[in-house]
Amino acid sequence: MALVLNEEQQSLRDIAKEFLQKNAPISHFREIRDTKDPLGYDKVLWKKMAELGWAGILVSEEYGGFNFGMMGMGGILEETGKTLTPSPLFATGLLGVSLIELAGDEKQKKQLLPKIVEGNLTTAFALEEGSRHAPCNIATKAKKEGNSFVLNGEKTFVLDGHSAEKIIVAARTNGGNDQKLGITLFCIDSGTPGMEITRLSMLDSRNVAEIKLKNVNISSDCLLGELDNGFSIIEEVLDRAQIGMSAEMLGNATQAFEITLNYLKERKQFGSLIGSFQALKHRAAIMYSELELTKSSVVGALNAVDEKSNDRTRFASLAKFKAGETLHLVSNESVQMHGGVGVTDEYDIGFFMKRSRVAQQIFGSADYHIDRYATLSEY
């Protein structure tokens, strides 16, 4: 398994880095937050990202995409993590594309994927129903009535759910709660009568939505994949999501570390640069070592998807656990090393601590993934 980027992957990452530093530095995130933008991202910027091909990184060439794989997507997500760029890339380019590619029929792929590639369609994945990640715990019901389905239930923590044009809903069509069999996916227009979508702002100023479904009547054409057998698709998409989030968290941690190193080289106390103090050098060395270990686990997991490894799920849990642990450490240490100013809004470093607390919970905390890794390893 290659742990080094090839020439194309490195080139894609370099372009992403240059584009984001020029068009979406951290001040862009601050502006979106302070103006309370109704979308939560800049639509013009998203269109430019789509023109660069980022929305179609995971889309097959026959549907207008680039089929560049998770290594390509991971490199871009890592760079967006460094600049804290708000965009539909994760919810649409990774989650939506993966669900449609893996579960959709030919008609759905031809209808939806080219629009995503062009930046003209955004999606959200409505899966969770509780405060903790529990992918099998689906109580939302979809009852078949003739040639249609009627959905009732509530979804929570739907990333970018308030702005997406299509909501992909996991609902139970058979079986009881916590059973894998009997879960079905549906791709629904966000304006469908009976859907009540409420935007919420999280600690890190990113958007999620609560979605209530009350007698939502949809055609059977909205069925995405096989009836009752959606969970195997959800499992694979969640692996990709956990790995993609790990790449973004690696970017978060790397940038927090770089900002802190620069601060240690500038800030003086008692007439000396604080970076010359032995205790702070040791703490910085520990952060550097953990970042290097995280890079290896993230690259290994990205490769596992592209190479269709049988160990994909274990790699996903290892990467999400390690990225969560490292981002928690680095963001804490970074704020502490900045002293009192580290918790003020004037300094960017506090944004990384807030992002770390939210990102750690998305699609499973470190505790969830260390337990899953142990179970899969038959400990």
Q: Average pLDDT across residues?
A: 95
Q: How many helix segments? A: 11
Helix-strand pattern, N to C? HHHHHHEEEEEEEEHEEHHHH
> Percentage of helical residues?
40-55%
What is the tally of beta strands? 10
Key descriptive features of the protein:
single chain, 11 helices, 4-stranded antiparallel β-sheet, 379 residues, 4-stranded mixed β-sheet, globular, alpha+beta
Describe this structure in words.
The longest helix has 36 residues, at 231-266. This protein has helices at 7-23, 26-34, 43-51, 69-83, 89-103, 106-117, 231-266, 278-306, 312-337, 349-359, 366-376; strands spanning 123-126, 141-145, 148-159, 166-172, 183-189, 195-201, 207-219, 223-224, 268-269, 272-273. The two termini are 25 Å apart. With 379 residues, the chain is α+β, with helices and mostly antiparallel strands.
Short description:
With 379 residues, the chain is α+β, with helices and mostly antiparallel strands. The chain is built from 11 helices and 10 strands.
List strands and helices in order, with pairings:
Layout: H1 7-23, H2 26-34, H3 43-51, H4 69-83, H5 89-103, H6 106-117, E1 123-126, E2 141-145, E3 148-159, E4 166-172, E5 183-189, E6 195-201, E7 207-219, E8 223-224, H7 231-266, E9 268-269, E10 272-273, H8 278-306, H9 312-337, H10 349-359, H11 366-376
Parallel strand pairs: 1-4
Antiparallel strand pairs: 2-3, 3-7, 4-5, 5-8, 6-7, 9-10
